[in-house]
Amino acid sequence: MSKVTTELDFFGLEKKQTNNAPNPKFKKFLDRRRSFREIQGAISKMDPEIIKSLLASGANPSETSARSLSVPSTPKEGHPHIPISPVHAPLTRPGMVPVSGTVPMTIFYNGTVSVFQVSPNKAEDIMKVAMETSPKKDKSMEKDLPVIPQTTLRTKLFGQNLDGDLPIARRKSLQRFLEKRKERVVSTSPYFPTSA
Amino acid sequence: MEDPDTKKPRSTPRNVDDVISLVIPYVTDARDRASASLVNPTWLRADSETREHVTMALCYASSPDRLSHRFPNLRSIKLKGKPRAAMFNLIPENWGGFVTPWVNEIALSMGRIRSVHFRRMIVSDLDLDVLARARLDELEVLKLDKCLGFSTDGLLTVVKHCRKIKTLLMDDSSFLEKDGKWLHELALHNTSLEVLNFYMTELTKLSPRDLATIAKNCHRTLVSAKVGDFDMLKLARFFNAAVNLEEFRGGALNEDPEKPDKYTKLTFPPKLSRLGLTYLGANEMPIIFPFAAQIRKLDLLYALLETNDHCKLIRKCPNLEVLETRNVIGDKGLEALAQYCKKLKRLRIERGEEDEGGLVTQRGLTALAQGCKELEYMAVYVTDVTNECLRTIGAHLKNLRDFRLVLLDQEERIIVADLPLDNGVRSLLMGCEKLRRFALYLRPGGLTDVGLGYIGRYSPNVRWMLLGYVGETDEGLVEFSRGGCCPKLQKLEMRGCCFSERAIAAAVMELPSLRYLWVQGYRASMTGEDLRVMSRPYWNIELIQARRVPEVDERGEVGEVEHPAHILAYYSLAGQRTDCPPTVRVLREL
Predict the structure, then answer these.
(1) Cross-strand pairs, A181
(2) Which of B321, B423, B482, B578 is the most buried (most CB within 10 A)?
(3) What share of chain B is helix, strand, coil (3-state, %, to 5)?
(4) Average pLDDT in the B191-195 region?
């Protein structure tokens, strides 16, 4: 894992002993208010043009690397170029070369997934813009949303048996519906503020 | 080469080979064809030249040029890419399953292709462009089924070039929506559409007016429409025009407490018999009562009904053959099914939210088994189950071909479950002789090693299995794969099991028909070396590395979920993959 002075150990991964944790749920390390749903919600409401301009107009070119792994990645041999936005540098091979001082930032947007190598400062900028452009202000959202650092995975870490603690997975489509259902239930409750 | 289109009889067949070339076009079952092709080179050629459809359960099992060389006159193909686990968010999105090489082959040398079905694959706009331009008006069916990677531009190209398209499906696909032009283009030119499906897509830029126009222009042919979240009132014109519509799913019923009669004036096409209305609530339910008696297929997965609502509705559908819903249906709902829906053939009960209430247990399943004897497919998430219940299923449901049971892990409740289920499972397998697909997903203690041995011994016809949290030690797997066990098992999926790599690899070597293995959650070694026990020619072994993925849990909180490593192994004539993302590691020969 690359060490950066401004790195935010969001999940307390440094402190956590992964090997002896039978419970893969990391809830206890998280601040309740920092709901990923809200982060995701903010990002999903962002105008892609804003993301593009932010990343393209990096004040310090050495600071940010806008190399992106745009899913779906293309196969190596003789694959025709998929038309993708100019921000996403076309890669023939999904392997990324990380620029020092940058950490991967994953953005789920409108059915696509992109990963950018950004410095924490740039990431915070993106988060701030997201909050500004999002129409509904989530009152419980923090001003400074931390970047979610991704650790470099080593197979060794997870080579051990997890003591069978795999939660039953839900179908994607059903999961989406159940989330929508929750929102509908909330919005029709008598105590929901209707001043949207 | 004989033209397969003209099945002109010769004056007198001179020998068996002449006969077979006349007969074989009428043999359509893939397994029969496969058998016939093994007889001798003449039969192989007869099959090859006349084969019209091929399904590849895994696109990496062979290569595009092998396919087109063996079956030069293919009209229809279905390819599947990602493992089934992808539907449950377990597989990296960029895992693979690119359609590009296949589309290129279709364009180059498969000049008779009329129907293309890609399932769980990665499709780009360029792929769609190549396909559309290659097949033009001859392309009748395009199904992008749980695919990702394209945009509405790709759809527009298809619609523009393939003017006679009859089936256009993008069900549950994940793609970029730029505009609604593709639907508009369909509305402008198409008069042959039979099936239109953009269900479970998050499309927001489509115009209901275009949909209505399509219904009008294709009123003779349009029989099935599965659409997105249009408010149902906006679909009124569509329903009025689609006079031959038999199947409809989607729409959105947005209840308005100030207008309780909002949807009561809605009329539906007269032949509608397969239905699923999104957000259907108790208040709106009566709008389908007038034609409930003719409903054969009902999708309540995305409805907002409670247990009693289910009962009320079920009572009115005596001709119901297929039902999909969540476990809010409860035992009460299953008892209603047993009483009123004697023709039920397929039942799928998915796992809803805990706050919905409604539990499915042995009580409901027992009633169901006794009342709905025609059941062929049953997939249920249960809160509790007993051996006796499974025995009853085995005793009554003799037509069962596909049985899937998941025992939910409810932490907050103390459920006294009748574990282990060894004897019940044995009885069920012995009783349901026609079973071809079987899934059992339990919890530690749910099935002993002996029970796992029973599964091996009593599944003579099963071709696909999903086993979760079964067995106790490697010995269970030994019992499962012993000589004579699971003779026809082709595809095995396992999750959350305690078996070692070595045991898994050893079992694979014992199972005579196995061609595809997927495992997640097992006792892995540091390097995966033990998997080499199953090294053999044409057998690809891949590891999807363990990952940490940010996810929102049930409480809406962000967490990181550890995704343990997966093993994926399969037979392939195409050699090892060369298009893997970093998360996939191919185990190479030493």
Answers:
(1) none
(2) B321
(3) 35, 20, 45
(4) 97
In this prediction, residue B273 has a pLDDT band, given cuts at 50, 70 and 90, of very high
Nearest CB among B94, B125, B520 relative to A73 is that of B94
Residues B11-24 as b/e (b if ≥16 CB within 10 A, e otherwise) read eeeeeeeeebbeeb
Contact A40 B552 (CB under 8 A): yes
Cβ–Cβ below 8 Å for A162 and B88: no
Tokens of A193: 């503020």
User: Which of A111, A174, A188 is nearest residue B175 as measured by Cβ atoms?
Assistant: A111
Determine the residue type at B101. Answer: P
Minimum Cα–Cα distance from A165: chain B residue: B496
Section A120-146 average pLDDT: 58
CB-based contacts of B154: which residues, under 8 Å, 6+ apart? B123, B124, B125, B126, B127, B128, B129, B175
Which residue from A minimizes the CA distance to B523? A161
Of B93, B524, B547, the CB nearest to A153: B547
Mean pLDDT within A62-69? 39
DSSP-assigned letter for residue B202: -
Q: Supply the pLDDT for residue B11.
A: 61
Name every residue whose Cβ is closer than 8 Å to that of residue B244 and which is 6 or more positions away in sequence.
B219, B220, B221, B222, B223, B269, B271
Q: Quote the CA–CA distance of B447 and B420 in Å, as a whole number.
A: 5
Element (H, E) at B394: helix B387-396
DSSP bridge pairs for B76: B53, B115
Contact list, A152 vs chain B (CB under 8 Å): none
The pLDDT score that the predictor gives to residue A130 is: 75
Please name which of B441, B449, B391, B446 lies closest in space to residue B420, comparing C-alpha atoms.
B446
Point out the residue among B149, B444, B560 whose CB comes nearest to the CB of A11: B560
Say if A28 is an interface residue toward chain B (CB within 8 Å).
Answer: no
Which of the pair, B359 or A188, is modelled with greater confidence?
Answer: B359
Contact at 8 Å (CB) between A64 and A55? yes
User: How many whole angstroms from its chain centre is CA A100?
Assistant: 19
First-to-last alpha carbon distance for chain A, in angstroms, is 42
Distance from CA of A195 to the nearest CA of B (A): 17
Task: With CB atoms and an 8 Å threshold, state whether B90 touches A79.
Answer: no
Collapsed DSSP state (helix, strand, coil) of residue B30:
helix
Of A74, A111, A153, the CB nearest to B548: A153
Query: CA angle at residue A116 from A112 to A121, to 5 degrees?
Result: 130
CA dihedral of residues A183, A188, A190, A196 (deg, nearest 10): 70
User: What's this model's pTM, rounded to 2 decimal places?
Assistant: 0.77
Taking the mean position of all CA atoms in its chain, how far away is CA B308? Answer: 29
Q: Give dist(CA B380, CA B428) in Å, integer.
A: 15
B563–chain A nearest CA distance, Å: 8
| Interface confidence (ipTM) of the complex | 0.90
CA-nearest of A140, A171, A187, A192 to B254 is A187
What is the model's pLDDT at position B227? 97
DSSP B271-335: T--EEEETT--TTTGGGGGGGGGG--EEE-TT----HHHHHHHHHT-TT--EEEEEGGGHHHHHH
Contact B558 A151 (CB under 8 A): no
The predicted structure's pLDDT at residue A100: 57
pLDDT, tens digit, 9 for 90 and up, residues B475-529: 999 999 999 999 999 999 999 989 999 999 999 999 999 999 999 999 988 777 8
Instruction: Give the model's pLDDT for residue B417.
Output: 73
Q: How far is B473 from chain A (nearest CA, A)?
A: 13
Measured in angstroms, the CA of B113 and the nearest CA of chain A are apart by: 22
Which residues on A lie below 8 Å from B500 (Cβ)?
Answer: none
Q: Would you state the pLDDT for residue A168?
A: 87
Residue B74 to residue B99: CA distance in whole angstroms: 17
